[in-house]
Amino acid sequence: MKKITSINNEFIKELNKLHEKKERDKRQQFIIEGFHLIQEAKRYLDLVLIVDEKDEVAGIENILVTKEIITKLSFTKTPQNIIGICHYFDENQLTGERFLILDNVQDPGNLGTLVRSALGFNIDQVIMSIDSVDMYNDKFIRATQGAVFKMRMIKRDLIEAILDLKERNVLIIGTSLKASIDLDSLSSINKYALVLGNEANGVSDDILKLVDTSVKIRTNSLLESLNVGVAGGIILYYLDKKQE
Amino acid sequence: MKKITSINNEFIKELNKLHEKKERDKRQQFIIEGFHLIQEAKRYLDLVLIVDEKDEVAGIENILVTKEIITKLSFTKTPQNIIGICHYFDENQLTGERFLILDNVQDPGNLGTLVRSALGFNIDQVIMSIDSVDMYNDKFIRATQGAVFKMRMIKRDLIEAILDLKERNVLIIGTSLKASIDLDSLSSINKYALVLGNEANGVSDDILKLVDTSVKIRTNSLLESLNVGVAGGIILYYLDKKQE
Lengths: 244, 244
Fold this sequence. Notes:
By secondary structure, the first copy, chain A, is of the alpha/beta class. Helix content of chain A is 31%, strand content 22%. Chain A is built from nine helices and twelve strands.
């Protein structure tokens, strides 16, 4: 097994550049960490760095490194003894019958939570607007707890994507606090795309113009709004149950 | 209007100690920041520090300070020009018919999201276990977006609290991935307490022994678990809708 002990090793320095989005995009690679995520990411792994030979991951290149090197490459304060280098997902077309569309969702934690819910409630693909948070952002990847590796993820111009889906008879469901339809009056739908918007501004007007219907979740009037991850979870649950 | 310009002013130093839980508990006070939160927190505000006289808050003491002082007292990198000092909520008894019980929920973001959902779905009181995150933690307060000031919040020994609620005929609903009852087979209930658990370990065994029923949310088997904030939101939505 190859071994690297210096934190100034050129290869390690090169890997460390993957902390920057620009560099990730150039190499089409990103860093993940922790045993659980690496377990979940198997099909995307190019390489792992481990501190102890007993942690060897079968089927790919393993490099033995020091804890100091792990700490340098890690995004967290108390990293586990493993770092993985993955390649990009390479998803290039819209596919399936149920979609979650995210219009400029910015918080990596909210986005991660939404991908977990999408996986749980049988969404086929998550479509993110170009201006959404980077899908290889470390906080996002960690917040998905590995669900991102089991979900089809794609970034697209949303107007083009929605027009495409409409041609395939996918019902586009917007969300808006001003919507006239309560979630629980929505009937059973086979092909749908749920559109969720930015934390502060909601779904943009350009997109709301294209939706087939728009729903809201009725809440106590004392509350200004639900968290976007919670609102998305409730609607995805509801749409999934309606299918049964 | 009183004015303080030195960051080394004794009173400012004293206020800065409120960053520590021990000191907060001693004085029964905590710091909040931002115009929106201060608007929502009116009934708990003792004092505000402002940079500009035009931001004066009516009905309480205002002190004019420098931006440097605001930055010192703030928890965020780019604070708004206002800091508020609030007193503790002083909630000392179980009250109402609908409860959300949080057994050692640790992430301030999850807890904040849950309090928003509790307010939205007509929960009367949130009961936190003694070992849950501090309810005056700044990240928690911010994550509630002010909902915490409209919700009754109390910390209690959960076993005592649950026994007390059972005597009042409140149905105690646990959550567990091993539960045999799916959420959608739960019937309409008037008085209920939903128990949510720790992010990693769920509801503790001691508490699960006391629940009247335990529910799970059916999801695709590829998903290990939903985020606790999302799971809580879905169940609270469901219980609230069943009442209508």
